[in-house]
Amino acid sequence: GIGAMRAENRSHVFKRCDDEFRSCHNTALYRRERRNLIQPIRYISKYCRFYYTEAGVSAKFNSRQPAHRNPLMRDGAFYSVLEQIEDAQSLPDLERAIMGLIDIYGFAHAGYHALRLPNDPRENPVVIHSYPEQWISRYRSQRYFEIDPVVLQAARSILPVDWDRLSVPEGTPQLLFREALDFGIGRKGLTVPIRGARGDLAVFTVVSALPDREWQSLKLAQTRDIQLIGNYVHHRVLALCCDDEEAPIQLSRRERECLQWAAAGATIAGTAERIHVSERAVRGYLDSARHKLSSLTKAQAVARAIALGIVEH
Question: Which of 51, 69, 100, 139 lies deepest, with the highest CB count within 10 Å?
Fold first, then answer.
């Protein structure tokens, strides 16, 4: 039955698949290596039922699986969230898109916090969140953002801040976390730092109430999506809140190709193999594209390229 997913039919099944399904798709079907086919098939059948019609193969997500436990359902919804962010015409529209993440991924809370925006002298100019308003009022009145270990660590890092690995000093920072627990905000979270070339700085945070094992699994599988969504939100905030006109961005064919494969989740080595160049060349193309897109990280460059329509998602 899986053979029916070849050629034109398979494009009707999923818009984008996770790494295991792509492994089945690229390796097993094309190279006919049966030993690599068995496990991905079991994985897919866990989450989907396949139906065969005159039009080809169609798939229905297994509704018995909650969305945050069904990676194929969540994977499709990921693109829906990106489209909502891209279509947002106001900050309330962005808030609705971010709140959609909570049900899709099984988070307890999600939030975006702009610490600095270009040409905006305000302190913490944009905050979009799902936290209780009483907690936000307390957080602001006590100026916790000045001593919050998560914010301070994110401001010094380009990598996501895993709350499980965060060292919290004695005194007020520990009091902050105890008060957060009183307001129903747990200790399991991931914060993505976002920096722009114009001095802008923001963080995007998700908080989980899942059991430890499920949270560890979700975090491992979806950190890249969280990073991309955070950068995508930040780019939209800049478009809505900053009036600066930007010159059109021109990327070379190779730069676009490398960004396109990066958006699809390919590694440096995987991209090099697909476009038949060296890994060093791929790094060079990505660095050049990142510079042209005024981005400090590859994830930010991919998010910006998608938002500008330079690459497809």
Answer: 139
In sequence order, what are the residues at sequence separation of 6 or more whose Cβ sits closer than 8 angstroms to the Cβ of residue 176? 144, 147, 148, 149
DSSP letter string over 184-221? Answer: T--SEEEEEEEEBTTS-EEEEEEEE-S-HHHHHHHHHH
Q: Which residue has the tokens 């702009």?
A: 114
**How many residues make up the chain in this entry?**
313
- pTM (whole model) above 0.85: no
CA neighbor of 231 nearest in space, from 197, 208, 266, 207: 197
Residue 300, SS3 per DSSP: helix
Looking up tokens 């070849």, which residue turns up? 6
Whole-number Å distance between alpha carbons of 192 and 299:
11
**Nearby residues of 130 by Cβ (< 8 Å), 6 or more positions away:** 98, 99, 102, 109, 110, 111
- Cβ–Cβ under 8 Å, residues 188 and 285: no
> pLDDT truncated to tens, each residue of the chain (313 aa)?
334 344 334 334 334 444 444 444 444 443 443 344 334 433 343 444 433 333 444 444 444 455 556 555 556 777 888 888 989 999 999 999 988 888 888 899 999 999 988 878 788 899 999 999 999 999 989 989 889 999 999 988 888 999 999 888 888 888 898 999 999 898 899 999 998 877 789 999 999 998 999 999 989 888 988 999 999 999 899 988 876 555 567 889 999 999 999 988 899 999 999 999 999 999 999 999 998 887 888 888 888 888 777 887 6
Instruction: Extract the tokens encoding 310.
Output: 């330079």
> Letter for the amino acid at 186?
G
Strand order in 109-116's β-sheet?
126-129, 109-116, 201-208, 188-195, 161-162
Q: What's the Cα-to-Cα distance from 71 to each of 26, 35, 43, rounded to whole Å?
A: 19, 23, 10
End-to-end CA, the chain = 28
Q: How far apart are CA 229 and CA 81, in angstroms?
A: 8
